[in-house]
Here is the input.
Amino acid sequence: MDQKSIKREQWSTKLGFVLAAVGSAVGLGNLWGFAYRSSQGGGGAFVLLYLLVVLVVCLPIFVAEFSLGRGTSSSAFIAPIKAAGKNWAPLGWLFLIAPLGIASYYAVIMGWTADIFVQSIFVGLPLNTEESSSLFSTIHSGNRDFIGQIFSITLAGYIVSGGISKGIEKLNRFCMPILFMILILLAIWAAFLGNSVEGYRNFLFNFDIKQLTNPTTIRNAFSQAFFSLSLGIGIMVTYASYLNKTSNLPKQAFQIASLDTAVGLMAGLITFPIIFSFGLGETISNSTIATLFITIPSGLGQFGAIGRIVAIAFFGLAYIAAITSLISLIEIPVSALIDKFAVKRRLASIITSVCIFILGIPSVLSTDLLGNIDAIANVLLILGGFLVSFLLGWVVPKVMDVELENSGSSKSTRTYLKFMLRYITPVIVSCGLLISLYDLLKTWTS
Ligand code: PHE
Here is the structure.
């Protein structure tokens, strides 16, 4: 079938688009990633660097990705070629490999989340760290991993097969308000815990100035910013390709980045009080994603019936946040298959889901492998961010000019964004990329 004869789908409203992009951004990265990265890299120093990266680097890249998607009306796989020719095909490939890689282990972590959610409803919580560790080993024992992983991929694949407005947009419109409500209630509950102040102190005010130059903290800040905002991976390119020409891209980028950052901070205001109120501070200091699956349930387990209700709310919240992110990861390869090979959406969703399942097998078998794939994927996102900023700042600046003209934003906003994308963002993001690569290699070789 001729590609042109298929009418491109569109978001039904601007709010629907913003909610879908927020849905992609807000995910396990906000709930687990923020907590474990900030506890690795000195709390407040990490948070400060993270905020700087979001403001100086990520916002301009956000608008650049939106412009690339809307300007070319193409999925992320072919948008770089359409904008700048065949030489930019590798960026399209990066936009295919990175989402598949991330989705592969993301679905596994979602499986763990679903498992503890079900466990909290029907069985109850572990009462101490030993019980919690053995529960996690059972959850993570092969077969149970697969059940959670397959369930999550199938659910997300099914929603994506429903299309942009009837699948992705509909789910986000339903889920996002629920997510914000639960989040606020949990943050209020956590504020009244015995040691909440100690938790906040470790999260935000434990400010060790030396951490600002520690390569691991810098890598964590860059990784967290790109991962959490779903940037450098082609999602915002793809989502913007379904936009009409009238929406104000800088304003929407700002709204999405602010909401995502607020959720990350609020999640810290929940997890840190829980961890410190139950004397689990030491377990978090060399934390990984997996540790949080042991720490949080055992913390809440000490809190009786209320702890159990909070666990149901917290893991339910995490799952809702994750499903709206997984669908965005699946949408990128799906839209590539539709645009490039005119495959039907349903078939494209099935093919992508099967690939993600197969690629996820190593992560089911080993949490170390999962951690390594996560580390590599995060560096790929920073690389993607650098290439996008270079492409729209230097190679085809016209694409962004036109989209900014169309977007109805003020002249000063446009000038600021163009200046940043040309002179500041690529420089800083390339430093971030080099430091992250150096730090990753150092951890692997030490
Ligand atoms: N932003 C999502 C999160 O914070 C994860 C994600 C990364 C989703 C990259 C899509 C692309 O969990």
